[in-house]
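SAMPLE LOG
Freezer: B-3
Tube label: C17
Construct: single chain, 339 aa
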Amino acid sequence: MKDIKEYKTHTQQGILLNANEMSDNLSSSILKEIQEKIVNLDFNRYPDNDCIRLREAYSALLNVQIENVLAGNGSDQILGLLIGYFLKKGKTLLTLDPDFSMYDYYCGTYDANLLKYPTRDDGSFDVENFIRYAIDNKVDMILFSNPNNPTGFLLTNEEIKVLLKQLNTIPVVIDEAYAEFAKESATELIDQFDNLYITRTLSKAYALAGARVGFLVSNEKNIKQIHKANVPYVLNCVSQMIAMITLKHVEEFRNRIESIKKKRDELIHSNYKSIHIYDSQANFVKVKCKDLKKMYAYFDKNNVIVRKYEGKDYFRLTIGNDQEYKLIKNIFDQYEKEV
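STRUCTURE (predicted):
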């Protein structure tokens, strides 16, 4: 029996600042367009297996070619596909500690070994030491989120280039679930490095967590190979249609993204003495404080749900809408006065 680490899904009641979702739903105009289009779908037919129109829309957004993009049922499904493609029993995956716990889950399902490279408190790490660690341990695949979940730390493209060059025989998968909130993306490197694979999603910045739409971005040769291993008809016609409509309204989401980044940076630079808010390039922040129990009591009182980590002295907080942000600021202000 394989030792599979179960992934714990998130609480879905209360003021949800625990799963890094977009706090507000799609706008009424987008919802209306979806309602008008859904009646024309052929539910009796299988969906477009190649997701042509969706890939056209997303590749245009990223300024890459359609041949550089593969669509999937959320980036989680793409991550599972890649781990299954590159790993098997006895093979080794290298990731960071801490990082997204779904990597542990998929590694377990394929009975592969998992190594975790410890990072600093802010999520940063020495790239050259990481490279040596990968070589010394003869790893078969590297996977990490960038920006990092849960710290928000961003490895720069220059650092990623160094990693890709020195580990050019090892597939390097970068999970860019939060890239829209960051200052740069590695997608501009896909034609420079054959070992680079990037996963993306519409769950975070584009408010489509419920539709489960994700992508793999890589060079054309890699995409052709991975496509052969992908599940047929992996993305249903409803999700494809919703995603295509949503991507027609990119400017609306850019405004939302900028608003979240502004609130995030304001919170990071708040002058709290008893609360440490780490720098972040994502739509969330890592937070430490002197008395977690007291902070959690404030959250409970206000029905706020944050991401807690068992045995850790920090929590992760999603940057929500304006109303939620004001509530968090009030909670932090009250906590600061009492501690």
